[in-house]
Amino acid sequence: MTDASTPDISLPTHQAWLVKTVELALNHRRRGGRPFAALLVRDGQLLASAVNLMHLAGDPTRHAELEALRTASQHGPLKGAVVYASGHPCPMCLSALVMNDISAVYYAFDNQDAAPYGFDSSMSYARLGLSLAPPPLPLIKLASPISAATLYGNMDGCDHHE
């Protein structure tokens, strides 16, 4: 049990996982992929690392969070695991995370950050009539080591939006 004098080391740990996630998303984007990545972690152990594969598979369900769930679930139930995502989960991904008993999502960029670049899922939430107040599980935005423009904006003069 911790008291007020014991420092909370969870935030730096969450921040370190999020930095890895954003780096993965940026590297994937630099290789021509969509700018999304997710890590699935439980008890400090990486269970899965994934990127958005929509562009390769022609499958709109190949979001990074779902790819991480697909990989990690091969090894058993995911209850209590945490997801680190480069962006706020869309309704499809959030539903899958809730259904798999994920305990929390830490993310770098919210819909407002992503909107100028065409990567905003807030309209999907609105069209489905889904409110995030209160959220179905903790959704925690952490500081990103890069800007939204760096991850989502034009790279080398080319627009990679799909």
Task: Explain what this protein looks like in three dimensions.
Residues 12-122 form the CMP/dCMP-type deaminase domain. The structure is a single chain. The protein has seven helices and five strands; from the N terminus they run H-E-E-H-H-E-H-E-H-H-E-H. With 162 residues, the protein is an alpha/beta fold. Helix content is 36%, strand content 17%. The protein has a single domain (14-60, 77-152), classed as Cytidine Deaminase, domain 2. The model is unreliable at 1-7 and 157-162 (pLDDT under 50).
Fold blueprint:
Blueprint (H helix, E strand, L loop, with lengths): L9 H21 L6 E6 L2 E7 L2 H4 L6 H9 L9 E6 L3 H9 L4 E6 L1 H4 L7 H7 L10 E3 L6 H5 L10
Parallel strand pairs: 3-4, 4-5
Antiparallel strand pairs: 1-2, 1-3
What features would you highlight for this structure?
7 helices; 162 residues; 5 strands; Cytidine Deaminase, domain 2; globular; single chain; disordered N terminus; 5-stranded mixed beta sheet; alpha/beta; 36% helix
Strand content range: 15-25%
Q: Just give the CATH class.
A: Alpha Beta
How large is the radius of gyration? 16 Å
Count of spatially separate domains? 1
Shape: globular
GO molecular function: guanosine deaminase activity; zinc ion binding
Keywords: Metal-binding, Zinc
Domain CMP/dCMP-type deaminase: 12-122
Protein name: Cytidine/deoxycytidylate deaminase
Compact overview of the structure:
One of its GO terms (molecular function) is zinc ion binding. With 162 residues, the chain is α/β, with parallel strands linked by helices.
